[in-house]
Amino acid sequence: MKSPRIIVFLKIPRPGSVKTRIAATLDADAAAAIYRVLIQRTLGALAEFENVELRYAPDDAAKEIQPWLRRGWTCAPQGEGDLGQRMQRAVLDAMAADQEAVILIGTDCPAMEAEDLQAAARALENQDAVLGPATDGGYWLLGLGRRAAAAPAVWFHDIPWSTDQVQRCTLEKARAAGLTCGALRPLRDVDTVEDWREWQRTAPL
């Protein structure tokens, strides 16, 4: 199978628009600086991959995204809608471009490594989908093959985004639809100052 397209959802690290929970404890500039580190960490894990697309927000940030593009990478704005609508749009665009599978990730999980993405690609060779569970009840990765991508309502509709029920709800809907879903190792997102400090404490040098 051709390598899945990896789609990274990210925001431009403008102070006041990213990591608002961290900003509430520290300040907007510090939160933006932390988010920039998270982006750099995520893109570093993608260094060996070529079929990568950066989906950025806000939509007027085309110039700001350019420094993060590497050879062979592409970019596109996320567009309007809630998270589910934006993710669905990205997946359908990939399928329309004859991709056989797609892997969606964000930029909140600095513990993610290249090996995790390789494991996701392998899982999609014999599973309809694959999920990277986050310890807060969400997920840090969603991989979909063509069969799963053809059922967008399972993954993107009626999901309680930004709650601890995202993972449970997604898996229940997948099972109800008769879709198989593999699992990667659970990892911790960085959403709060405590999360950030814990990652700094355990991060490899």
Characterization of the model:
- The protein has 205 residues and is an alpha/beta fold.
- The protein has a single domain, classed as Spore Coat Polysaccharide Biosynthesis Protein SpsA, Chain A.
- It has a 7-stranded mixed beta sheet with strand order 3-2-1-4-6-5-7, sandwiched between helices.
- The termini are far apart.
- The relative contact order is 0.16.
- The mean pLDDT is 95.
Give the helices and strands, then pairings.
Layout: E1 5-11, H1 20-25, H2 28-45, E2 52-57, H3 62-65, E3 74-77, H4 83-96, E4 101-105, H5 114-123, E5 129-133, E6 139-145, H6 146-149, H7 152-156, H8 166-176, E7 181-183, H9 193-202
Parallel strand pairs: 1-2, 1-4, 2-3, 5-7
Antiparallel strand pairs: 4-6, 5-6
CATH homologous superfamily annotation:
Spore Coat Polysaccharide Biosynthesis Protein SpsA, Chain A
Average pLDDT for all residues? 95
Helix content estimate: 40-55%
Radius of gyration: 16 Å
Decide which structural class fits the backbone: alpha/beta
Q: How many domains make up the 3D coordinates?
A: 1
Supply the number of helical segments: 9
Can you summarize the main beta sheet? 7 strands, mixed
The second-level CATH architecture is: Alpha-Beta Complex
End-to-end separation: 35 Å
The CATH first-level class comes to Alpha Beta
- Helix-strand pattern: EHHEHEHEHEEHHHEH
- CATH topology annotation: Spore Coat Polysaccharide Biosynthesis Protein SpsA, Chain A
Strand order of the largest sheet: 3-2-1-4-6-5-7
What fraction strand? 15-25%
In total, the number of strands is 7
The general outline is globular
Low-confidence segments, given as residue ranges, are none
